[in-house]
Design brief:
By secondary structure, the chain is an alpha+beta fold. Helices cover 17% and strands 40% of the residues. The termini are far apart. The structure holds copper (II) ion.
């Protein structure tokens, strides 16, 4: 086998291994069919799925609503992080499929010093390739700190509809 091919194989194996460890470290969350609310620090994040739930093989919309965990006030102080107001990594439970998504709420095209903050809603579009459980890690930045918010969702088979 060519050396570069080995390198690519090794890299993908390490990535899958790390993701497998990430899944295994939170078994309670993983086995829960869905966590619609996650609190991270003083931030409460609610994930709203499409009516009737997610279906594999079609583009679905994931809506996040961000609130202050104590007051319930909408959060409107999201900071840009790596060119977006959020990053979502969606991975199948067997770690064989993953999707990286950004919110449809794009950064405004103004000077770098004067980007207005984002929130309280973030909308992601994602296509889950096959039925089953998926883990979603969503990164959001506020006050210079990046929080990673985990959710577990299940995609239904389109043939069962
Ligand atoms: Cu990203």
């Amino acid at each position: 086998m060519h050396r570069r091919t080995w390198g690519a194989w090794l890299t993908s194996t390490v990535v899958v291994l790390l993701m497998t460890i990430a899944f295994a470290q939170e078994p309670a969350l993983y086995y829960c069919p869905m966590h619609p609310d996650v609190t991270s620090g003083d931030m409460a994040v609610t994930l709203t799925l499409p009516d009737g739930g997610l279906v594999a093989g079609r583009e679905e919309t994931l809506r996040y609503q961000l609130e202050d965990a104590r007051t319930g006030a909408p959060l409107t102080d999201l900071e840009p992080y790596l060119g977006a107001f959020g990053h979502a990594l969606v991975m199948s439970a067997d770690t064989m499929h993953y999707v990286h998504a950004h919110p449809v709420e794009l950064l405004p095209h103004v000077g770098a010093d004067e980007v207005p903050p984002g929130g309280p809603a973030l909308t992601f579009k994602a296509l889950l390739p096959k039925p089953g459980a998926y883990r979603i890690w969503t990164q959001i930045k506020r006050r210079g700190q990046v929080s990673t918010v985990p959710f577990t969702v299940t995609a239904d088979s389109p043939t069962r509809r």
